[in-house]
Amino acid sequence: MTNPKLEQGLAIRKAVLGAAHVERSLAAADDFNKPIQELVTTYCWGEVWGNEDLPRQTRSLLNIAMLTALNRSHELKVHVQGALRNGVSKTEIQAVLMQTAIYCGVPAALESFRVASEAIKTYTE
């Protein structure tokens, strides 16, 4: 039985994060963590990112802000590169991170600037 939301989520996840990154994540999944990979792909990418009420660029900018607030550096790096892939400019990423300094705190913003700078330097399409 096929799951259309899983398939849609996989396509969106690959489009935003890059096929190589997604394939590595899925290949690294084992019996223990495979269910979370399927959940994330189905619900995060298929249901939420698959909803067309917000453009992908807006979703990327929201994720950058939220991941800064949550201090989730690994995911932030992935989503900064996804934002670039979605057509978000470096200036827009910078503006969001500047705003996080006010609402999330300067230490969180400084860490996110560090992570984003590295993500931008290592970004490949």
UniProtKB/TrEMBL annotation:
Which SUPFAM superfamilies does this UniProt record tie to the protein?
AhpD-like (SSF69118)
One Pfam family name from the record? CMD
One of the entry's Gene Ontology molecular-function terms is: peroxiredoxin activity
Carboxymuconolactone decarboxylase-like domain span: 36-118
Q: InterPro entries per the record?
A: 4CMD/NDH-1_regulator, AhpD-like, CMD-like
Can you say what this protein is called? Answer: 4-carboxymuconolactone decarboxylase
What is the protein's species of origin? Pseudoduganella dura
